[in-house]
Design goal:
The chain is globular and about 55 Å long. It is built from no helices and 23 strands. It has a single domain, classed as Tachylectin-2, Chain A, CATH 2.115.10. A hairpin with a 4-residue loop joins strand 17 and strand 18. By secondary structure, it is an all-beta fold. Helices cover 0% and strands 48% of the residues.
Length: 262
């Protein structure tokens, strides 16, 4: 791929989300900003809207259930009970919300059928996910980011993809947060390991804009994007600004800040 220089980004701070970590961002069809938050196998899990005044209304009520209790007392995934959650979310143009459980396996792509009471449908089984999106140009597919590629899942036909729509190759590379901007361009944060072991000192993160058609890329002026989203009209791009991220089982406590690309 051809290197085309540094892509400078101008940002304006919109505000903060008072949760320790944000796992995913999305815009609904009305332009509202939605986020997901979870801390693995704990009761701290939510999908809600963000407002300048703070956390807004819940999208759907997710509840924690111990893994061996999910078949007891009606604590099932279909009713919104999960043993693990730190996954992303996405909306299509009709306002349907989708999500995954995040960095865990077994996992799945889920559809919110009803919010009150919670009714959840698992539309695909899958492994670990980092980002989830229904792009502006393709309302019939969910684009899910794994550690090595972005996979395109049909929403209606439920035919699991065999090949990635976008991929990175390298023994010591790992895709983090990604955003499909248009049919050709992808923003991707990539973790580079400097040794086989993965400790806090043995990696660095860079973010890129890749052009799939021109076979070119630019390096973003922001090293790590965090979760990203683009509005349904294509006029705003937002991301979570973080101080650092430890790509293991640890979560850092911070006030996540939403920022917009201008």
């Amino acid at each position: 791929m051809a290197f085309e220089g540094i892509q400078q980004i101008t940002e304006t701070t919109l505000g903060s989300i008072d949760v320790p970590v944000v796992n995913g961002l999305s815009f609904d069809p009305d332009g509202r900003i939605a986020f997901s938050h979870g801390q693995g196998t704990t009761a701290s899990m939510m999908m809600a809207y963000w407002t300048p005044d703070g956390i807004g209304e819940s999208i759907v009520n997710l509840q924690y259930a111990q893994r061996d209790k999910q078949t007891e007392d009606d604590q099932t995934e279909e009713k919104g009970y999960f043993w693990f959650f730190n996954g992303p979310l996405a909306f299509d143009s009709k306002g349907t919300c989708y999500f995954s459980l995040g960095a865990c396996s077994p996992n799945g792509l889920y559809k919110v059928v009803s919010t009150t009471p919670a009714q959840i449908e698992k539309i695909y089984p899958m492994n670990s996910t980092r980002s989830l999106q229904v792009p502006l140009f393709d309302d019939e597919h969910l684009y899910s980011t794994s550690s090595n590629g972005i996979y395109r899942y049909p929403i209606a036909s439920q035919q699991k993809p065999n090949q990635p729509w976008f991929t990175v190759k390298g023994e010591r590379l790992r895709l983090l947060d990604c955003l499909v901007v248009d049919p050709n361009k992808v923003i991707a944060a990539i973790l580079f390991r400097t040794s086989q072991a993965l400790s806090e000192k043995d990696y660095y993160i860079k973010s890129f804009v890749f052009d799939r058609i021109d076979k070119s890329f630019r390096v973003l002026s922001v090293d790590e994007t965090g979760p990203m989203a683009i509005s349904r009209d294509g006029q705003k791009m937002i991301h979570i600004s973080t101080s650092q991220i430890v790509p293991s089982t640890s979560f850092l406590w911070f006030i996540s800040r939403i920022q917009v690309y201008e």
